[in-house]
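Worked example

This section walks through a single chain of length 418. The input is the sequence exactly as stored; nothing has been trimmed or padded.
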Amino acid sequence: MNVVWLKRDLRIDDHAPLAEAARGSIEDGVPMVALYVFEPEVWNAPDADGSHLAFVVESLAELEIELAARGARLLRRFGEVTEVLERLSREIPIDALLAHEETGNAATYARDLRVARWCRRNGVRFREYRQHGVFRPNPGRDGWAARWETHMRVARVTAPERFVSPDEGAVAAGDAGLWQELGLGDDTRAALRQRGGSREAAAHLRSFLLVRGRDYRTTMGSPVLAWESCSRLSPHLAWGTMSVRRAYQGARRRLGELAELEHTGAIARDDLLAWNGSIRSMLSRLSWHCHFIQKLEDEPAIESSCMARATESLRADGDPVVAAERLAAWREGRTGYPMIDACMRALVATGWINFRMRAMLVSFASHHLWLDWRTFAPWLGRQFLDYEPGIHYPQVQMQSATTGINTHLLAAQAGRGS
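Given that input, the structure is written out below as tokens.
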């Protein structure tokens, strides 16, 4: 059988591995299953949170229904991936393992290398597909934006209409409650965080492009207004309940609709200017999404090492006791700076806050409290429901001034934020 290994791609639309498995099952008669593995090494890492896991579990529940309606089975297993694959191959031999490329943290990077070695040893074809606009290998910095744009304009992969699954009873589905064995505890943000699943993602994209997004360009920096005017797609892009390409193409299509409204005189000039500016700003941020992930893809060491090596000991001269006290106050929203504390408490309660405030929180920790970014970056990643390592670590380093670049931009952003 063919196995589609699901990671941060919990959807059926624009999913190349699922589409390839469907072709194989229909044309060649090779049955397929979709597999999600609850990995203790990944979920017990210092950057994983119960809210992340709850979002994934919600997304898997929806995906299982969509797959079942097309004749496919979703297997849930618990353990280290190569061990899971070894046990699964004893139930039915695996011909091919299909998956999306993932630019994650050091744990997932090492895991992917182990899976590739297991496949080679066992004669299993392992094929990975590009998920977003991150290139592996990266041909180089020059021309990256044009390559990204070309990838985004390619037609989305159509959701398969039918799969062929193994015979009933040939392979065990696994327990839907396996995630509870990870011991992450309660989802402390359950009452206020966004919900998982592709339907939620589609609803957010639609409401942003048609209703909420008009003033996005001018209000995205406000910690009060951004809750509604931002797209709020970031958790869905991070966990893959929507592809970046779908968001991009939806925004491009909306620009075309606005042009038609302008041609027919059906939209006021002020509304047209506001909508066009906001949607183009959204498109820019979709590009930045992949641009920053590409940084971690190209240089995985920036998860733990300063991009500018000369800054490694920049904050090594402080009193560790004082640093621990400052870190605790920052995390608990009791620094005594009302704006800082309000933003931190909002983030901890909901799992989201807008980008300008994220930059402010990191800048304050690094420059005012003089904390090394490595002492708080994993914990901060746990607070973000939309935690994406490839965005998180380059951004944390940028705001901490350890990249060796963008120092003038950082100062300018700080000025606008005030």
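What to look for: The chain has three domains: 2-131, 198-298, 306-417.
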